[in-house]
């Protein structure tokens, strides 16, 4: 075709240019994949093994990808790499964005437009960034019409790719586990109701709360929302799974791990409350037992001292 790199192909012999390139009818200007594949083969294999490498490895892939100017792609393939927004300048991280993740951003519930998607993928400030993004998405079979309006409210989580959102959730969980004052908070709450009459009822309430919280944690642990390059098989009923998936899509994967971290911290606080109530109740019972023992010992001593006095009185009378 007129848009291909003619000097490069003129330098190759007839046996080095695969005939299937012409037969497939693929357009170089719309796929872009073809020319880069040939260039990579030339650099890696050399001219003499180019035809063999093409026929054995790349021709089946190329023919399956190129069909009418669009590509049949694997959703787990890499779309681009994006620098993190929350990293410090000294430790900037890059996160991989898959085609499946881009498709989730274009689909409900968010339905992002070209401006917002370009901002997430850091293409907003580049020259012709929006047009190039639409063309690339069109080649992958993803439609991003001009003038499209977003369907969901924009939050700070909207600007994060899923990799960075998961990283933020992991750091949040680690900070809750290591830095939250669970022991101090639990003991403070337990001291508010440490009267002997309330201790037993309070312990029952805390145990019931822990059970409900555990059931909630078990439910969230079975969430199988698509994330990154994974699309796990659902375990829960679809009626509840679709709501959890909606929450995960809106928060870009941050929501469920963050809620799980908060619930785990709450469970630790409840455990500290139980420990304080157990120690407090055992201390009071032991104190009451010691007091009873002291009272009984005092009574026995008084009884012993009273016996000789009574005997002396009797002897005096007899005399």
From TrEMBL:
<dbReference type="InterPro" id="IPR004979">
    <property type="entry name" value="TF_AP2"/>
</dbReference>
<keyword id="KW-0238">DNA-binding</keyword>
<dbReference type="GO" id="GO:0042127">
    <property type="term" value="P:regulation of cell population proliferation"/>
</dbReference>
<feature type="domain" description="Transcription factor AP-2 C-terminal">
    <location>
        <begin position="79"/>
        <end position="273"/>
    </location>
</feature>
<feature type="region of interest" description="Disordered">
    <location>
        <begin position="281"/>
        <end position="319"/>
    </location>
</feature>
<keyword id="KW-0539">Nucleus</keyword>
<dbReference type="GO" id="GO:0000977">
    <property type="term" value="F:RNA polymerase II transcription regulatory region sequence-specific DNA binding"/>
</dbReference>
<dbReference type="GO" id="GO:0000981">
    <property type="term" value="F:DNA-binding transcription factor activity, RNA polymerase II-specific"/>
</dbReference>
<dbReference type="Pfam" id="PF03299">
    <property type="entry name" value="TF_AP-2"/>
</dbReference>
<keyword id="KW-0804">Transcription</keyword>
<dbReference type="GO" id="GO:0005634">
    <property type="term" value="C:nucleus"/>
</dbReference>
<feature type="compositionally biased region" description="Polar residues">
    <location>
        <begin position="281"/>
        <end position="299"/>
    </location>
</feature>
<comment type="similarity">
    <text>Belongs to the AP-2 family.</text>
</comment>
<dbReference type="InterPro" id="IPR013854">
    <property type="entry name" value="TF_AP2_C"/>
</dbReference>
<protein>
    <submittedName>
        <fullName>Transcription factor AP-2 delta (activating enhancer binding protein 2 delta)</fullName>
    </submittedName>
</protein>
<keyword id="KW-0805">Transcription regulation</keyword>
<feature type="compositionally biased region" description="Basic and acidic residues">
    <location>
        <begin position="300"/>
        <end position="319"/>
    </location>
</feature>
């Amino acid at each position: 075709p007129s848009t291909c790199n003619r000097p490069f192909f003129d330098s190759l012999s007839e046996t080095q240019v695969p005939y299937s390139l012409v037969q497939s009818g693929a357009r170089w200007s719309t796929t872009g994949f073809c020319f880069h594949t040939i260039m990579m083969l030339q650099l890696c294999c050399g001219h003499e093994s180019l035809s063999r490498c093409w026929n054995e490895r790349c021709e089946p892939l190329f023919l399956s990808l190129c069909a009418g100017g669009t590509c049949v792609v694997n959703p787990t393939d890499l779309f681009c790499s994006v620098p993190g927004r929350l990293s410090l300048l000294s430790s900037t991280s890059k996160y991989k964005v898959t085609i499946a993740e881009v498709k989730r951003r274009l689909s409900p519930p968010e339905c992002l437009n070209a401006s917002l998607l370009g901002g997430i993928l850091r293409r907003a400030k580049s020259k012709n960034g929006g047009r190039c993004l639409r063309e690339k998405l069109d080649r992958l079979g993803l439609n991003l019409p001009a003038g499209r309006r977003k369907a969901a409210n924009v939050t700070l989580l909207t600007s994060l790719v899923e990799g960075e959102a998961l990283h933020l959730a992991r750091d949040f969980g680690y900070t809750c586990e290591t830095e939250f004052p669970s022991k101090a908070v639990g003991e403070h709450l337990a001291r508010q109701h440490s009267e002997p009459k309330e201790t037993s009822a309070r312990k029952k309430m805390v145990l019931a709360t822990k059970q409900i919280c555990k059931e909630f944690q078990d439910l969230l642990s079975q969430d199988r929302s698509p994330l990154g390059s994974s699309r796990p098989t659902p375990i829960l009923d679809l009626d509840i799974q679709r709501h959890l998936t909606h929450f995960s899509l809106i928060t870009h994967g941050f929501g469920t791990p963050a809620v799980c971290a908060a619930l785990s911290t709450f469970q630790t606080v409840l455990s500290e409350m139980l420990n304080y109530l157990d120690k407090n109740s055992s201390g009071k019972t032991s104190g009451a037992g010691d007091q009873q023992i002291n009272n009984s010992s005092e009574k026995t001593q008084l009884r012993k001292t009273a016996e000789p006095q009574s005997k002396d009185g009797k002897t005096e009378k007899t005399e």
